[in-house]
Design brief:
Strand order of the largest sheet of chain A: 1-4-7-10-13-16
CATH class of the largest domain in chain B: Alpha Beta
Number of strands of chain B: 14
Oligomer: heterodimer
Largest sheet of chain B: 6 strands, mixed
Strand content of chain B: 25-35%
Radius of gyration of chain B: 24 Å
Helix content of chain A: 55-70%
Number of strands of chain A: 16
Largest sheet of chain A: 6 strands, parallel
Shape of chain B: elongated
Helix content of chain B: 25-40%
Strand content of chain A: 5-15%
Structural class of chain A: alpha/beta
Number of domains of chain A: 2
Structural class of chain B: alpha/beta
Order of helices and strands of chain A: HHEEEEEEEEEEEEEEEEHHHHHHH
CATH superfamily of the largest domain in chain B: P-loop containing nucleotide triphosphate hydrolases
Strand order of the largest sheet of chain B: 6-7-8-3-9-10
Distance between the termini of chain A: 28 Å
Distance between the termini of chain B: 33 Å
CATH topology of the largest domain in chain B: Rossmann fold
Radius of gyration of chain A: 29 Å
Number of helices of chain A: 9
Chain lengths: ~350, ~300
């Protein structure tokens, strides 16, 4: 196969797409909806609730030089220390880790406190996890991470991964529009016959036509990805305290799964195009076939797929196998003989 | 240049083309005439390696159709003008031609030159950057013809090149085809236009699924009617008819108004004797001419009109 020939066909198709307002509209619409509207509608309410908390955990990096375990300390100044199972009185603690302890009349700054009871103390610039009590204690410029807020973060991260599903719709849906114009449009225009008369193979022509749809679809998908990554990071940061994207699942999703979905959708649409004579009918039937197939397969595997990159990888392999089969079938449909004698 | 051997194509139960055996020589303009559904387009598609024959085969410049890599070689040396122009309507005529030139491996430096040459010949160069969907049917057909020629093919297949065109556009196309004929290009022309076929074609094949007749337009006409001399008389008398009928070389002598129609094998030699007999029998000759049959009459005779 001469890829140069396919690229000539792809460039011609893309030049045609540029002049088709319906295709342009579709390609622009999807990144707008999926890249802007979906992340905002997903994360804006979460961000709103997040403001009720004391803020995201601070980025505190500790270097503990010495450890105290199961002691009582009184009137001490401690820097870079690690305390566990302690009772600490009238002391000053800085840049330290305190676990399972009680603090009375203590000033703490730039530290991490976990599972502590606070009495008449002052806490600044610190992260407090699993706070047991805080009688008479002033907490300033710090993050109190409660069980409830942790749960919300978990949910947010899960939602973030599930959001990926919506983005996988883009590479599935755009080809139903673009392929219908590319294949049915060319068939209606009767421009396939002179094209088939050129010294190119069936596979080169099919690859060229698929390539053009693939390029525009993936461009729209990846633009959506970039826009949504920026938006999601902006909106989720106050709650999570870090930028959640890109993560492994999203990278695999956009770099591997999305192209596989795109190829599947294009191939299914090639087969649909051979059976219909109208662009809109092709779009409708293409959508009816492509979406349920994707949703069914996706929901079947979606649960485990969203939990780890490994599962996502396995999921990609499954789709790769499906793609190979469907592409093979589409090459059977896209043959000169078939097109000129059997295509409606 | 083109050789068909029992070329047959069926679509299920329907026989589209049956047992075509014929040859087209290099530089010849061969016309294929026949009614709708006679198998003209199917034959063209088989010869351009778009579809395969069910039985039989054909060779185009020594390459066998339906076999790789011969099929690719054939597509490289033929140009096809299908029944519908089939242009990319949203693209300019220049981009349409440039796209096909690239697919036909025309080198980049020659592409512009060739496209300019063709569009100038057909008077379309000034409108090269306009989208094709702004063109008239005749203009589109000119672009489609240019597309078929953009790679300078050795053999040109034209399927109804003037169908649906207004007389002026049709004349432009016909004149252009005449120029191509002068260049010595092999042309395979499917047409319903019998005047066009008679004017352009060296030989024609009449097809109605099967090949019914083949030959030059002149040969076909002579095959059906021989050569007929028409003698218009001032007054037709039985004496004159009897005298002419008595001539041993005069066949099928018949009358029409005041005219005598006589089939002759060699009218150039026999006409003077015919005239002499008529005058001797008291007939007064007003005109003496050869009866001209048209290809249309041949066609209707063959196809049944």
């Amino acid at each position: 196969m001469r890829i140069g020939k396919s690229w000539i066909v792809a460039k011609k198709d893309m030049a045609e797409f540029k002049t088709n307002k319906y295709i342009i509209f579709t390609i622009l619409l999807m990144p707008t909806i999926m890249g802007v509207i979906v992340p905002i509608s997903y994360f804006l309410p979460i961000q709103f609730f997040a403001e009720e908390d004391s803020g995201p955990p601070l980025d505190i990096k500790l270097t503990t030089n010495w450890n105290l375990d199961n002691h009582t300390v009184y009137r001490g100044n401690y820097i870079n220390a690690s305390f566990q199972n302690m009772e600490i009185f009238s002391s000053v603690i800085e840049a330290s880790l305190v676990r399972n302890s009680t603090l009375r009349f203590v000033v703490v700054s730039n530290s991490i406190l976990d599972n502590v009871s606070l009495e008449y103390s002052i806490i600044t610039n610190s992260n407090i996890y699993n706070l047991k009590s805080r009688e008479g204690t002033v907490v300033k410029d710090s993050s109190i991470v409660t069980e409830e807020s942790s749960e919300r973060k978990e949910i947010t991260l899960t939602m973030l991964n599930f959001l990926l599903f919506f983005y996988m719709i883009i590479p599935a849906v755009i080809p139903t529009f673009v392929a219908s114009y590319s294949f049915v449009g060319e068939k209606n225009n009767r421009s396939l016959e002179p094209l088939l008369a050129t010294p190119t193979t069936d596979l080169e022509l099919l690859t060229g036509k698929m390539l053009s749809i693939f390029v525009v679809t993936m461009a729209a998908t990846w633009v959506s990805y970039v826009i949504s990554t920026v938006l999601v990071n902006t909106l989720a940061f106050p709650l999570l305290g870090h930028y959640p994207l890109p993560n492994a699942l999203w990278i695999i999703g956009f770099l591997a799964l999305a192209p596989l979905f795109c190829i599947l959708s294009i191939s299914l649409n090639v087969m649909v195009s051979s059976k219909v004579t109208d662009v809109r009918a092709s779009q409708q039937i293409g959508g009816l076939i492509v979406l349920p197939v994707l949703v069914f397969v996706f929901l079947t595997f979606a649960g485990p797929a969203f939990t780890s990159a490994w599962m996502m990888g396995i999921y990609c392999v499954i789709f790769l196998v499906i793609d190979v089969a469907v592409v093979f079938l589409s090459t059977k449909v896209f043959r000169r003989e078939e097109i000129l004698t059997r295509w409606k | 240049m083109i050789r068909m051997e029992n070329l047959t194509r069926t679509f299920g139960e329907v026989v589209a083309v049956e047992g075509l055996t014929l040859e087209v020589d290099e530089g010849e303009v061969f016309g294929f005439i026949g009614p709708n559904g006679a198998g003209k387009t199917t034959t063209t598609r088989m010869l351009c390696c778009l579809i395969k024959p069910t039985y039989g085969t054909a060779f185009v410049k020594g390459n066998e159709i339906g076999k790789e890599p011969d099929a690719l070689n054939i597509r490289r040396i033929v140009g096809l003008l299908p029944e519908a122009p089939g242009l990319y309507e949203r693209l300019s005529s220049y981009k349409n031609l440039d796209f096909f030139a690239q697919l036909y491996d025309v080198p980049a430096v020659k592409r512009r030159e060739r496209i300019k040459e063709l569009l100038e010949m057909l008077g379309m160069w000034k409108r090269r950057d306009e989208p094709v969907n702004t063109f008239s049917k005749g203009m589109k057909q000119k672009i489609a013809i240019s597309r078929a020629l953009v790679h300078d093919p050795e053999i040109l297949f034209l399927d109804e090149p003037t169908a649906g065109l207004d007389p002026r556009a049709a004349k432009t196309v016909r004149d252009f085809l005449s120029e191509l004929k002068q260049e010595g290009r092999t042309i395979f022309l499917n047409t319903h236009n019998l005047v066009e076929a008679e004017r352009l074609c060296d030989r024609v094949g009449v097809i109605n699924t099967k090949l019914i007749a083949i030959g030059s337009p002149k040969e076909l006409k002579e095959r059906f009617w021989g050569r007929t001399t028409v003698v218009q008389l001032k007054k037709l008398s039985p004496n004159v008819v009897a005298a002419v009928k008595a001539l041993p070389f005069a066949k099928n002598v018949r009358t029409e108004d005041n005219s005598l129609l006589i089939d002759l094998a060699k009218p150039e030699d026999e006409n003077s004797e015919v005239a002499e007999v008529i005058i001797r029998s008291g007939g007064e000759i007003q005109f003496m001419s050869e009866l001209k049959h048209t290809l249309e009459e041949v066609y209707l005779e063959l196809i049944g009109g």
